[in-house]
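User: Hi! I'm working on a homework problem where we have to compare a predicted structure to a textbook description. Could you give me the structure for the chain below?
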Amino acid sequence: MGEELNKQEPDNTQIEIIRWLHEGKSENEISILLHKSKVAVNYEIESILKKLNTKTIEGAIEWAVNNKKIIIEEESSEPEVKHRIGIVGCGSGGSSIIEMLKGNSIVDIVGVADIDPGAQGISLARRLKIPIFTRYNDLVRDDVELIIDVTGNPDVFNEIKKIKSEKTEVMGGVSANLMWKLAEERRKRYEDKEKMLKEHENLYHLGLIIENIDSMKDAGFAIIDYATKLTNMPAGCIVIFDEKNEDLILVASKGFSENLRKKDRWKITKDGMLNKIFNQSYPMFVNDLDKYEKPPSFLLEEGVQSVLASSLSIEGRIVGIIFACDFKKKRTRVEDVSLFSLLTVYAALAIERVKAIEEMRRLSIVDGLTGLYNHRYLMEELNKELQRAERYMLNFSIFMIDVDNFKSYNDEFGHLEGNKVLKDIADILLKSSRASDIVGRFGGEEFFIISPELNKDEAIKYANRIISSIESHNFINRKITVSCGLAVFPDDEKTMVSLIEKADQRLYEAKSQGKNRVCFV
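Assistant: Happy to help. Predicted structure tokens:
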């Protein structure tokens, strides 16, 4: 009695899950039907068992049957009457009709006939253990109720009508052709349904793969690879929207030339195709790009003819665009567009998730004020650069840079103004550095630069250029200068600690010698 009181009624979705389990569907099939992950389905099943206070799925099914949530049709005590049918002609038409009638509980195909042993339907009949005849006369028997003639030969049809008994009906001509068409249509719908189910399953697996990816590039490649296979197109790309610059950044591409990857930022013009895709919530398909007004130049340069594209959005906010492209004109199915639209939901969620991960990773290695790399990251990279230089016998330089008289600046103008100075200096250092340089904030008003494959002569010129750029910069309140200590591997020192100590010592020397200079000896 107590157990009955503890039971709770499953909701409608959970009752549907019980019904599917009763029908023998797997958890994977149920996850596809519900458009949920397998983990979510497992959670629902556990919730059902808990609500019904049972430990087994069978117990849940029994509850559903007893409470008339699942209606089990009782088997009829009267045996079903089967109609005995023969098929003449085993080409594509006969094959389609066999396919449609096989397994039908009220039909018994007693035989098929065709003079060609290699006909399409013969191998199917053989697999189904249906008797095969080379002469249609062998099928014209009193126990055969209906003969379907799909040979399309009027002579065969008339001959069957002559020799058949009164008990046997003959279907041929328009009637047989109509049945053939219906069988073909049924087969095609079944194949489309199977393909759709397979695509949903693949989409589900793509979601599982993306869940474990924490790199934007890797996520982009996984998505665009699936999108091109889904749409049967040879090329595609995915771009993310840069809100700060209001342009698009190429993340991943497939099937395009190297030139596309070189132009990795695309502007969105007000009256162009990109803007239209960007501002509509459903996919756009263009089967002849040459006829489209103001198409994206990068697609024309690649020779693209057909495009299926869609914006990627999260709660009304656009995060990117996905393209599937073909180099020839083609048509696309409504089902493919529908699946492509579903893919955009997965893609948008994946991009948003990876962006959040990459932002967290970035915040863990950058200084919050200046946006430069922080002390911990600088030390990790310095250690890597030292190992690389040792392995390949290369040199590299490090710079310890300190703002001159910064304490007095803060005392006179306040810390907020001092922070503005640090930000300006960070910008100057970034603009003065090479792509391979690692620029960071060492702490306080000290900055640090690692310059791979830079010898002492080159490093001295580099340091003087930085000092000159800062000295000539128009700071708000007063002129600002910096001092720099330089150390070079392996000329000066050969360990990480000793290199830093050498640069710090020389920075002190630069300060002692009058500031606004670099010391390298």
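For your comparison, note the following. Residues 112 and 132 are 5 Å apart (CA to CA). The domain at 213-362 is CATH 3.30.450.40 (Beta-Lactamase). Good luck with the assignment!
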